[in-house]
């Protein structure tokens, strides 16, 4: 255990150092990323105004809160992508990672965790600017604050497991970007990224309860923006833990088969 | 003494999809795919003893890298037995991976934008190396490879040779007992190659490490390996001392003669390979070496004469061309 803690700290340190080398690029990347929620925010705020001040219980102020928190959750959701898996397998870079006495997923988790610290620092001025422009309505209790902190890391781990599973398809076949895009399409609709889940038809909301996507996006945002009861917060975190366990178990299972299949191409 | 590496009838076969060119073949392959079995490694056996440095030679596609990948646990063998220090590499146990390293000349494990010292620290964490041992080993290697002025520079600013030296340090910080080196000097200049060879020899000497080395540079093999294993088309053609390889496969010797009159035609003595500053180099069948040497000395005014074995590169070429199992 001590070795893993030491490794996570060392890898996060490397990541932080490396991302600060690219601070300008990272900033422009984040500014670009803000464009998407700002468009959603402007559209929904306009609709809310036209419908007498709210849509499905969301006022322009709560929409602003939703999409400003969205920007942080979106950044926390960035993990090693299936395209990254495709690249590391096709280019042979996985071989060097496999020589380490440690599963490569640990490096992925640690490295991107380190990146999050840089992202949060860079996000703060952007969030302040968006708050100044769009005037969000927040009413946060300390319990919701703690739940949000736990939920964004839970979301990060769920997404790491799921996208790694998806990426591992490339052990069997290369060029599977069409499958990846299909997955991202479902995720966009069923996670709350496009629109808060409570504005979706009831059957979509029901379906999303049984799928992992909602717990990586809508749930973390709602812990801070919505008015969830303590029980709902615990259920949500419980669902996140469940999906982390399911993801990790599947990952372990698929990994065993994948590594036998691995042909260590290109080095 | 028990062997560190034991391989018996090891094979790795791949199923490779195959089709002819053209649209019709492309459409047909959608419904009926043809596969061909490629026998990358086809039933090889050898043992390597503790502390041995063995050259693993063969042309491109011979099966060298596939064998190294099976030994380092990257690939599952199709059949056969493989044991390294009592471990089956493909099980990829922590205790096994902790004791080996694989250096590939064209692979990079250092973080590109940061000084190599940061990557070394990550290696410390990966292998759980105690801090004092890590610092001692790291500083020792930095001294041996003369890297003191370079370790604080971002890796991207280093030359290929400097980067390779850093790679080797990173790969050996956990002091592995078995080294798999795949073309560690590829693309490097002669001075850098020599420095890396010296370092490998020193590491082997200090830690009694076992080394299996592939290289297309015969200078690497001649400097480091007493024993060589020659592989071709996935089969072993030769396994023994480098000197026996030379004796067994060299069918000629090279005579270099400095004559009083360098213009004399020497074609009757052997094949003239070159004339350079009054020194003539001849290729002579091995069985006739003594006789030709005696004739040269008696017939001509010879200032200097040396007899050498054929270059190892040529001998290896000859082994491949014979393509027969020894």
What brief labels describe this structure?
heterodimer; A: 267 residues; mainly alpha; 11 helices; B: 326 residues; alpha/beta; Rossmann fold; Alpha-Beta Plaits; 2 domains; six-stranded mixed β-sheet; four-stranded antiparallel β-sheet; globular
For the largest interface, the chains and their residue counts are: A-B, 28 and 32 residues
Mean pLDDT of chain B: 87
Oligomeric state of the chains present here: heterodimer
Strand order of the largest sheet of chain B: 5-6-7-3-8-9
Structural class of chain A: mainly alpha
Report the portion of residues of chain A in β strands: under 5%
CATH superfamily of the largest domain in chain B: P-loop containing nucleotide triphosphate hydrolases
Relative strand content of chain B = 25-35%
* Overall mean pLDDT of chain A: 90
Number of DSSP helices of chain A?
11
Q: From the 3D structure, determine the CATH topology of the largest domain in chain B.
A: Rossmann fold
Uncertain regions of chain B: pLDDT < 50 for 5+ in a row? none
CATH architecture of the largest domain in chain B: 3-Layer(aba) Sandwich
How many strands appear in the DSSP assignment of chain B? Answer: 13
Number-wise, the strands of chain A total 0
Helix-strand category of chain B = alpha/beta
Explain the overall architecture.
The complex is a heterodimer of chains A (267) and B (326). Chain A has one domain (2-261). Chain A is built from 11 helices and no strands. The longest helix of chain A is centred in the last third of the chain and has 32 residues, at 230-261. Chain A is globular, with a radius of gyration of 19 Å. Chain A has helices at 2-21, 23-50, 60-76, 82-90, 93-98, 104-134, 142-167, 177-190, 202-209, 218-225, 230-261. By secondary structure, chain A is mostly helical. In chain A, 37% of the residues are buried. With 326 residues, chain B is α/β, with parallel strands linked by helices. Chain B has 2 domains: 47-246, 3-Layer(aba) Sandwich (Rossmann fold); 252-309, 2-Layer Sandwich (Alpha-Beta Plaits), CATH 3.30.70. Chain B is 35% helix and 30% strand. In chain B, the strands form 3 sheets. In chain B, strands 5-6-7-3-8-9 form a 6-stranded mixed sheet, sandwiched between helices. A 4-stranded antiparallel sheet of chain B has the order 11-12-10-13, covered by helices on one side. The longest helix of chain B has 18 residues, at 190-207. Chain B is globular. In chain B, 38% of the residues are buried. The interface between A and B is medium-sized, with 28 and 32 residues.
């Amino acid at each position: 255990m001590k070795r893993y803690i030491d490794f996570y700290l060392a890898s996060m340190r490397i990541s932080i150092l490396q991302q600060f080398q690219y601070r300008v690029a990272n900033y422009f990347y984040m500014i670009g990323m803000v464009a998407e929620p700002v468009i959603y925010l402007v559209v929904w705020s306009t609709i809310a105004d036209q419908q007498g001040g709210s849509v499905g219980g969301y006022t322009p102020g709560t929409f602003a809160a939703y999409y400003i928190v969205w920007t942080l959750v979106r950044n926390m959701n960035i993990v090693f992508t299936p395209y990254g898996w495709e690249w590391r397998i096709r280019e042979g870079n996985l071989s060097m990672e496999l020589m380490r006495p440690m599963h490569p997923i640990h490096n992925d988790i640690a490295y991107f965790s380190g990146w999050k610290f840089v992202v949060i620092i860079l996000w703060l001025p952007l969030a302040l600017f968006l708050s100044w422009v769009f005037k969000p309505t927040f009413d946060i209790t300390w319990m919701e604050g703690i739940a949000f902190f736990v939920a964004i890391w839970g979301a990060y781990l769920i997404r790491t497991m799921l996208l790694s599973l998806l990426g591992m398809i490339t052990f069997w076949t290369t060029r599977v970007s069409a499958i990846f895009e299909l997955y991202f399409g479902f995720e966009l609709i069923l996670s709350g990224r496009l629109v808060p889940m409570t504005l979706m038809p009831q059957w979509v909301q029901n379906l999303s309860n049984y799928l992992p996507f909602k717990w990586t996006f809508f749930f973390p945002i709602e812990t801070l923006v919505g008015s969830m009861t303590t029980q709902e917060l615990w259920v949500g975190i419980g669902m996140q833990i469940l999906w982390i366990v399911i993801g990790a178990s599947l990952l372990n299972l698929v990994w065993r088969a994948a590594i036998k299949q691995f042909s260590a191409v290109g080095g | 003494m028990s062997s560190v590496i034991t391989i018996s009838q090891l094979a790795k076969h791949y199923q490779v999809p195959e089709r002819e060119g053209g649209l019709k073949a492309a459409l047909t392959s959608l419904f009926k795919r043809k596969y061909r079995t490629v026998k990358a490694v086809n039933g090889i056996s050898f043992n390597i003893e503790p502390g041995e440095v063995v050259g693993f030679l063969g042309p491109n596609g011979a099966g060298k890298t596939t064998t190294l990948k099976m030994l380092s646990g990257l690939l599952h063998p199709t059949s056969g037995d493989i044991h390294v220090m009592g471990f089956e590499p493909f099980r990829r146990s922590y205790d096994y991976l902790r004791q080996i390293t694989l250096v590939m000349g064209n692979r990079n494990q250092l973080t590109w934008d940061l000084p190599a010292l940061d990557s070394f620290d990550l290696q410390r964490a990966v292998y759980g190396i105690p801090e004092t041992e890590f610092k001692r080993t790291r500083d020792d290697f930095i001294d041996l490879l003369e890297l003191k002025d370079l370790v604080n520079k971002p890796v991207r600013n280093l030359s290929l040779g400097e980067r390779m030296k850093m790679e080797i340090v990173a790969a050996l910080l956990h002091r592995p007992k078995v080294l798999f080196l795949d073309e560690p000097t590829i693309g490097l200049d002669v001075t850098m190659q020599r420095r890396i060879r010296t370092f490998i020899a020193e590491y082997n000497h200090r830690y009694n490490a076992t080394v299996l080395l592939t290289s297309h540079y015969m200078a690497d093999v001649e400097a480091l390996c007493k024993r060589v294993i020659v592989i071709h088309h996935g089969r072993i053609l030769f396994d023994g001392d480098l000197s026996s390889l030379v004796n067994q496969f060299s069918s000629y010797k090279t005579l270099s003669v400095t004559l009083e009159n360098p213009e004399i035609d020497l074609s009757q003595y052997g094949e003239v390979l070159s004339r350079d500053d009054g020194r003539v180099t001849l290729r002579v069948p091995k069985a006739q070496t003594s006789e030709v040497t005696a004739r040269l000395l008696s017939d001509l005014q010879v200032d200097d004469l040396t007899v050498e074995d054929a270059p190892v590169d040529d001998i290896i070429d000859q082994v491949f061309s014979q393509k027969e199992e020894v």
